[in-house]
Each structure stands twice: as C-alpha cells, then as structure tokens.
C-alpha cells in the first residue's frame, strides 16, 4: 500500500494522528550522527543499539536506524499492525506513558507538529537514554518549556541538518521546515579529538521527576541499606489474591490495571503526605530527600514487576506452545517490558505484539525442527523429485540443498552425546540437555499440530537407560484417550532413535512442505507425499494460529 493510500485509510478510520513519514535524507543524517557517536573507534561497522521511536508510525524509521532491540509508542492501531514483528509496542499514548524506566540507547521522534513542544518536552524530561533525535519545526528554539526541560537535564543540543517536507522525496508533503536535532544526555569527554562516552546520564530522569513532584527536604540520612521493594510487592500480591472476585467479574486486564492504579495512587499519596511535614521535623527524624527518592523509585519498580508478572502467568497457554529457544527469546522480551506503565493500552499493545510474533514463531519452529532432523537416512523425496545425493554431500554434519522432501517416521540422529554418565562415567545416565531440548520441542510442535502433549513430563525428568525406549504420549482431544506420539531410544555411543506416530509425522511433513512453499494445497500434498486426500486435508494448515480472540480473552470477564 502506498503512503497516500495508507493516509487515506487512516483518515477513513479516524487514525490519522499527523502521520508524516520521516524522509530518507533525515534518517541518513541521524544514522551518520549515531555512527559517529556510538560506534567503536577501531571499527567501521555501524553500531548495534536499542532504540525507542515515539510516534513510530509503521516502524520504517526504526527498521532503518537500528538492528538492535526496537521499541515503539504508536497511537494508530492500523500502523501498529503494519510494523515489523521485531518491533515491540510498549505504549500507545505518550502522555499516558512514563518513560523513566524504559532504558534504551537512543530515542527518536518525528512528533505531530501541532503539539511538538509538549511532546518533545516530555521526552526530554523523562528519557532514560544517551541520545535523543527529534525532527521538529525550526521554531523549537523559542519554545520556553522545551528549553527549560533541556536545561533541567543539563543536555547538549545540536542541529544536524535542516529539511523541508515540501520536496519530491517526501512520502507525504507539507509546507514545514524542520531541524534534525540531537539532544545528548550522557556524560562524555573529548581527548585529542576523540569523544569518550559514559553510560551514566548527566541528570537521572527519576531524580528530576521526584524533585518536581515532591518538596526537597533535609539531606542528613543514610539510605544505603534501604530496600522497600519487598514490602510493596507483598502488599500488591495481597491485593491481587484478595481481589479474585473483581478479576472474575471485570476481566483480568481491567482488574489488574485498576489494582495497579490504586496501589500507585496510595503510594504517591503517602510520599506527598510525608513531604508535607515540617522540614525541621524530617531532619530531626533523619529523613532525607535522597532516602525518600530511592524508596519511592524502588517501590514503583516493584509494583510494576508484580503486576506484569501476574499478567505473564496468564500468557502460559501461549508461551507453553513455543519451542525452547523461542520461548526464552519471547520471555526475555516480556521481562524487558516490565518497567513500562501497567495500563490497559500498554497491556493490549504488548499482547498484540505477542500474538503477532507467536504466529510466526509457531511456523518458524516447525521448519527448524524438521531441518534439525533432516539427515540422509531420514529423508524421502517427493514423487516429483528424482534428484539423489551422493554420500559425500552429507559428510561432516553438512546437509546438501535438497529439493522437496519429507521425513520418514523412523528417525536416526547422530548426536555428540545422547546420555550423560557424569564426569567420571560412573553415574546413572541422564539425558543430554541438547537432546532433551529436541524431544521437548517435538512435543511442543506436536501439541501445536493438534496432539495434546502439554501434560506430559519433560524429557529431562524421565528415567533413561542406554538402548531402552521411552514413550511420549498424547491425549486425543476428541476421545480423551492416550496414545503414543513418539518413542525415543538414546544410545551410549550418542545415537538417538525416534519412532514417530505416523499421523503426527504426516501432519509435520505436510505443514513443513506448505511453509517451505513446496505444496500449495492439500491435493498437491497428497500427490507428492503418497498420502490420501483425507489425510492431506486434515494436515494442511493444521499448525496452530492465534487470532484476536486470544487477546479478547484477557479482557473478558472470567467464567
């Protein structure tokens, strides 16, 4: 869809919040400056860094600026849907969002010019980043609130370039002249012409926020041993545990959000009342601004963590369907988001990101699993594929380029080690962790293909003996009966033998062929793989996909 068509669609849905895509020239100026500041002085490679785009649109600027972690705040759901799956949406409304705890290297923003001043001021005051890049009208230097924010952060500003949106290369033209402004917040120094940077910010944004909201008091107390985080976490957990009826009646997201806002309001209110006391009395009691600020910061951090963890617990029906490495990647992303405000909009944005990415992960991990089991002894060519491969093509762990194949239901894998007998070789055997991950991933993918395996014990928790088969079962979702999904034998020499349920292997092969683009429909799968049309129809598109109902389930009242 062209930008003009996209703008028209945004207007039709009342979601055009001044979407003017940043031009390539502007982004090139930002990229060049980032490289000069963040790159290794002994390397010409473009640096990898984390970035937040406030008002990210369809994510094109983030994709151009960094290959590192990408975070976005964007109000238009239509534009969020068009963002690359590597972009994590951490908020939808800047003014309902607190940036203090969202730590990243660079913040970029091309704000709505009708209120660029308030937008830019909030970013500067709350940014927890080394560098800020703003695309803003040239009159920004006359904005007193923005200039005050820059001064409060003791920041350095520099105009990198000046551009107009009224040029042929602008995807959406406007008669606006803008400056590309860099605002530097980190401590750095110069020595013989070389810049040395520090991860430390000149002014901590939380300290600035605290000073603005609470009256400064005496500074005589020592707070080195202060650790109030556990107290506030315990209080929040108690509120959740005693509020189950509200969660049931109002839905998980809304109830947790209400709990969080109530806890946060109580917490800030307590500190406001403390700071309203006589400064002399506070000094006599040994209470300092430093102690109060540190205590409040730790408590807010603990409060957010409690509520995000509670929500993540309810993600298990989704995350349990991810393979080992994929699940860890997703959970790491979710953990990194625990510092953002716990609001319904932020929760829904994060859930939408999870669902969008998980659907792709479900497909990717199926392909990866089959390719891990692709060895010469396990491969059967499609009927139309007459090409054969010489023995040397498989040597030294290599896999030749094979055109259109499926796996036999009997699998033999040569592993570096299948069983672990301890350092001296005198202990009872346990399954090697790499092999355990493979078997657990096979159970996960089987579950996604309709074979219920979620209640099966993980491979690593089972008893293993060399050459003895271990059975992995599934529960038929229609009849409730258990059957063997696959059996595994681990041998002392490192070989792993698998015998997979033929119906499961049929689904695995058909979906692998579909995802690789080798079969376009069930009939082609039946013809190529020598299976019945009924089997092919049941297998085609059988891999799990999540829809919007998964997101709505979190918001709906619980039964």
Automatic annotation (TrEMBL):
Cross-referenced InterPro entries: DNA_methylase_N6_adenine_CS (IPR002052), DUF4942 (IPR031339), SAM-dependent_MTases_sf (IPR029063)
Domain of life per record: Bacteria
Alphabetical UniProt keywords: Methyltransferase, Transferase
GO biological process, one term: methylation
Keyword Acetylation: no
Annotated ranges, domain DUF4942: 302-515
GO MF annotation: an example: nucleic acid binding
Protein name (record): DUF4942 domain-containing protein
């Amino acid at each position: 869809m062209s930008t003009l068509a996209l703008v028209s669609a945004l207007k039709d849905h009342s979601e055009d919040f001044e979407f003017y895509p940043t031009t390539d020239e502007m982004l090139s100026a930002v990229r060049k400056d980032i490289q000069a500041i963040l790159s290794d002085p002994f390397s010409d490679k473009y640096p990898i860094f984390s970035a937040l785009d406030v008002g990210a649109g369809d994510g094109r600027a983030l994709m151009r600026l960094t290959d590192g972690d990408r975070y976005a705040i964007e109000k238009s759901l239509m534009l969020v849907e068009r963002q690359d799956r590597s972009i994590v949406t951490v908020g939808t409304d800047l003014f309902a969002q607190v940036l203090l705890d969202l730590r990243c290297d660079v913040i970029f923003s091309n704000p709505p010019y009708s209120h660029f001043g308030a937008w830019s001021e909030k970013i500067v005051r709350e940014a927890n980043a080394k560098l800020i890049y703003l695309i803003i009208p040239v009159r920004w230097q006359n904005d007193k609130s923005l200039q005050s924010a820059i001064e409060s952060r003791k920041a350095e500003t520099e105009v990198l370039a000046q551009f107009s949106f009224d040029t042929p290369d602008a995807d959406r033209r406007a008669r606006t002249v803008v400056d590309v402004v860099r605002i530097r917040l980190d401590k750095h120094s110069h020595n013989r012409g070389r810049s040395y940077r520090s991860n430390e910010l000149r002014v901590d944004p939380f300290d600035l926020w605290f000073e603005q909201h609470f009256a400064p008091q005496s500074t005589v107390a020592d707070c080195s041993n202060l650790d109030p985080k556990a107290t506030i976490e315990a209080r929040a957990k108690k509120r959740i545990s005693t509020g189950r009826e509200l969660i049931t009646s109002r839905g998980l997201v809304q109830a947790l959000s209400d709990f969080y806002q109530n806890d946060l309001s109580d917490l800030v209110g307590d500190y406001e009342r403390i700071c309203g006391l006589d400064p002399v009395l506070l000094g006599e009691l040994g209470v300092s601004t430093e102690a109060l600020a540190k205590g409040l910061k730790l408590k807010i951090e603990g409060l957010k963590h409690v509520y995000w963890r509670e929500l993540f617990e309810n993600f298990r029906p989704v995350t349990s369907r991810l393979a080992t490495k994929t699940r860890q990647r997703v959970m790491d992303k979710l953990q990194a988001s625990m510092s953002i405000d716990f609001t319904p909009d932020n929760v829904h944005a994060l859930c939408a990101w999870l669902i969008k990415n998980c659907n792709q992960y479900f497909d990717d991990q199926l392909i990866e699993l089959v390719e891990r089991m692709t060895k010469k002894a396990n491969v059967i060519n499609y009927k139309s594929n007459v090409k054969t491969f010489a023995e040397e093509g498989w040597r030294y762990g290599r896999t030749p380029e094979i055109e259109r194949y499926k796996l036999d239901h009997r699998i033999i894998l040569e592993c570096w080690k299948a069983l672990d007998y301890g350092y001296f070789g005198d202990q009872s055997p346990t399954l090697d962790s790499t092999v355990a991950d493979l078997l657990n991933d096979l159970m996960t993918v089987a579950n996604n293909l309709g074979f219920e395996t979620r209640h099966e014990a993980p491979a690593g928790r089972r008893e293993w003996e060399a050459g003895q088969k271990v059975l992995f079962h599934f529960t038929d979702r229609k009849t409730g009966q258990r059957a063997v999904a696959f059996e595994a034998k681990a041998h002392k020499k490192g070989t792993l033998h698998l015998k997979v349920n033929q119906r499961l292997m049929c689904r695995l092969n058909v979906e692998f062929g579909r995802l690789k683009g080798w079969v376009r429909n069930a009939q082609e799968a039946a013809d190529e793989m020598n299976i019945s049309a009924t089997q092919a129809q049941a297998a085609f598109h059988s891999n799990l996909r999540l829809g919007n109902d998964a997101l709505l389930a979190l918001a709906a009242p619980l039964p």
